[in-house]
Amino acid sequence: MHACAAIHAAAAAASAAAAAAAAAFAAAAATGDCRRLCCLLLFVLIQIKAEGPPGAPRLFLQQQQQQQQQQQQQQQQQQQQQQQQQQQQQTAGPYMLLLGSLLYASQTQNKPCTSHTAAAAAAAAAAAAAAAAAGAAAAAGAAAAAAAAGAAAAAAAAKEREGLKKKQQQQQQQQQQQREQQQQQQQREQQQQQQQREQEQQQQQQQQREQQREQQQRSSSSSSKGKRGIKKKMRPSVTFTRSRQSLLLYFIQNRA
Fold this sequence. Notes:
This protein is mainly α. 89% of the residues lie in helices and 0% in strands.
């Protein structure tokens, strides 16, 4: 495989990661200027190193990190940062290999493209394949991170729903307890009122009984006083009649 063809293929692959440089890559490829293509690829590699692997732009990563910071705990954030660092370390090697091969190709660009060696072509092809594999792995890692973030968000939402359910249940239990306490208090008040009414009735009945007793005592005392007066009045007459009878008996006995 020709070295220029490998460089052109690598430029086309890199243009997918940097859409802004697509026009410059097209112009350089049309003119066949390999040195310009190498410079553009160097710029793309620097941009990729600053923003992250292909398929995961810096803005998307920042938004994802913000969502993860809001939804996940500190331990999950540390794990995600470690995963991102590992991904960057894994993708740094192929990009550096591609950069070295391209620099070698640019240094040997003293003659037309037909004079490039097969070694440079093989190195560029291997670097391009490694870069493509690294991009696919980075995209898979980003998808896995996004899936993990989605799962974490779903777990957080489930926890929130469970917390709301528990709060509602607690509120319902508190309301039920308050209703039961109010009912018990009403029953106690009703019982106290009933007892007070019964006590008042008993007191009234006692008073009535005492009044009846007093009336009976008064009536009995008045009747006993009247009988005593009648007896006192009738005693002289009774004694008189007895004396007459005794006299009559006395006369009759003496006559006999």
